Request: fold
Amino acid sequence: MKEPILAGLDAGSASIKTVIARVNNDKLDVIGIGESESEGIKKGVIINIDAAANAIEKSINEAEHMAGLQAPDIIATIGGDHIKGLNSKGVIGVNTKDKEVTPAEIERVLESAKNILIPADREIIEAIEQEYSLDGQDEIKNPVGMSGTRLETKVHIITGLKHVSEHLRKTLNKMRFSGKDFIVNIRGSSEACLTEDEKELGVVVFDIGHSTTSIMVYLEGSVWHTAVIPVGSQHITNDIAEGLRITIPSAERLKRDHGFAFIDMVGEKEIIEVPTASGQMRTIPKRVLTEIIQPRVEEIFSLCGKELNKMKYIDSLSAGMVFTGGGALLPGLVELAKAYQTAVKGAAPISARIGVPDKIEGIRDIANNPAYSAVIGILMMSLDEATQVNIPHKKTSEKGKFKFNFKNPFSEFFK
Reply:
């Protein structure tokens, strides 16, 4: 049997990434990578279909050339600050003859949970199972095969603006792709970076992109919160350009080559060269650059904290936090996160790490690059055929939920 080929696309505001992989023994064997400069995309949303199509085509062509084959179709991420998450419930009476829950009953109760009022300009992108209840028995992960009369479910629903997905679909249609499979980028990043233990214990993922930072919270194995804040790594670049009076391209290079998030990690005598408007070079202490960067990173932390304070699950995030996305390449990010929490609240440092998409085989160039987390993650999700529809029907276990009675220091970080 011929090995299936999967292709994923992450069209961001800064760059467009394509990954082609062969499915080999239920694992991703990466055979092609493409990356092009983004055009026609702002804040993760397509604003010029023709320009975006040209840029996307360059990325796909590069990946196909490396792979030595043509992608049969493509799965794409969708993102931007229009993405919102909410939790919903559904309930049905079990209609089977012997009152046994079947996959068809699961689909019915999920459809019931999706029957919610949302603005006319929005649509449901994904509905993600959290847990089930059967005749009052709670905390069931997979009720198929169990018997009862009343089946309830809790579901996390992710919505987005209709025109955003429609423009992405039209852009892909201009090539040869169907544009039928979209997955929210933070969901892909989470799948690529998190362990199952982290999802069970409770963890928050921050995907720091070009113009936005996406947030996703997992509790007891399921998604419970999704949000996007309109600040990303480009804001850091803009601050550098304004603070040092240099061009945006020069500021981006300076951030990439010498940037640090945490001033305590930069020596007082370290010197770097900075270009002037006339093209000449001048020298400044490296700490001056960090003094520009650190406040913006702290602002991202603060905004993320305000978002998480809207929910009541913070005490359960025992696995801490994971940073990913292109913005997570900034050195000192994790160290600043720990110091920021200690300085602001005087609490013990929390668990924090950088998440990378290292669950792949084949071309390993991107395995340690958090900028590729989203595109690798959506390919990982597509390994399960059931994730090709809007309601991903997971292969779940009967494993019970963890309960914690101790005070988690993580909660102090976001107050």
